From TrEMBL:
Organism: Okibacterium fritillariae
Record protein name field: Nuclease-related domain-containing protein
Xref: Gene3D superfamilies: DnaJ domain
Residue ranges of the region described as Disordered: 59-110
Taxonomy, superkingdom: Bacteria
PROSITE patterns linked: DNAJ_2
Pfam families: DnaJ, NERD
Low complexity: bias regions: 69-96
Length: 315
């Protein structure tokens, strides 16, 4: 699986530019080892990250492979470098190209579309090449771009990967992607209607660990003033008012492994309820609902779907 463009590069971990020679890279590695070693008061997590970084670029051959797009000393690709088949370039996960023999969920809108457009604009402006930039998804280019730009691409990929999971839920579900809730609120990445209710989802990938603190999502590369859950609740309420529907819950979807428990209930005091969960938990969550979630009947579901179809606007 391709590594996230939001993840820090080995060069960033070691505190050097990607263009340094091998001797300077080795000196930076030894310096970081001394700074982070647990026996001398350092941090074990950072110490392990320094070692992993050196494994990727410490050997000249491995470093050359990494700079071409490989993610490990074995030479396995960090992401496809062929733009015609690359997940990053094509705008859809590889599983979405597989043949499906059973009915899939109804999907509307373009997942990740707005984020990809933003990424393409930013990367072209930063590179100074405008529309003539040959490959905006070139691994070396992406890795050298500022964090803000890489996070935008990671956001697009996260939305696309979530949409692949949602498509496999089956014919009992309807999904609207990249929805504008109106009232100048942030967009809703995915609006999902199914037997357990109506949910607003936000897909995130900040390239590191995620936790829940004081009713909000926190972690690496989240801003101090960011409020992803509160923002999503406001957007869901705005759309609910315009469509005359009520959301059952909202959820922040994060990459598997980034959340320790893989599922966090933020609190039932909210309306709608709020959750944070790993992407692989999403199908079970939407099919089972929470403990007190009633099953939505066919007539009620049809009415909600009709109202949403009339009210939904895409970004």
């Amino acid at each position: 699986m391709p590594e996230s463009p939001a993840q820090v590069t080995p060069y960033q971990v070691l505190g050097v530019a990607p263009t340094v020679d091998h001797d300077e890279l080795r000196r930076a590695y030894r310096r970081k080892l001394r700074e982070t070693h647990p026996d001398t008061g350092g941090d074990a997590v950072r110490f392990a990250a320094v070692q992993r970084a050196w494994q990727k670029v410490g050997d000249p051959a491995d470093r050359a492979a990494y700079d071409r797009g490989a993610s490990s000393p074995s030479g396995s690709a960090a992401w496809p470098t062929d733009g015609s088949s690359s997940t990053w370039a094509s705008g859809s996960g590889s599983t979405s190209r597989q043949q499906h023999t059973r009915p899939r969920a109804r999907l509307y809108g373009h997942p990740g579309g707005a984020a990809r457009e933003t990424y393409l604009r930013l990367i072209r402006e930063w590179a100074g090449r405008g529309p003539d930039l040959p490959d905006p998804y070139d691994p070396a280019l992406v890795r050298s771009a500022p964090l803000e730009i890489r996070l935008t691409l990671a956001k697009a990929i996260a939305e696309e990967e979530t949409s692949v999971v949602l498509a496999d839920l089956g014919i009992g579900f309807t999904v609207w992607n990249d929805v504008d809730p109106g009232r100048d609120e942030d967009k809703i990445d995915h609006v999902v209607l199914g037997p357990t209710g109506l949910y607003a989802l936000r897909s995130e990938d900040r390239g590191g660990s995620v936790s829940v603190s004081r009713g909000e999502v926190t972690g690496e590369n989240f801003g101090d003033r960011e409020q992803p859950i509160r923002s999503l609740v406001r957007s869901a309420r705005a759309l609910g008012r315009s469509a005359r529907v009520k959301f059952t819950g909202v959820a922040i979807i994060v990459p598997d492994g980034s959340l320790d428990s893989e599922f966090e209930e933020v609190g039932r005091a909210r309306s709608p309820e709020a959750f944070v969960l790993g992407r692989s938990r999403l199908p079970h969550f939407l099919r089972a609902g929470s403990a007190d979630t009633p099953i939505v009947g066919g007539t009620e579901s049809f009415e909600v779907r009709t109202r949403l179809q009339a009210a939904v606007r895409f970004v």
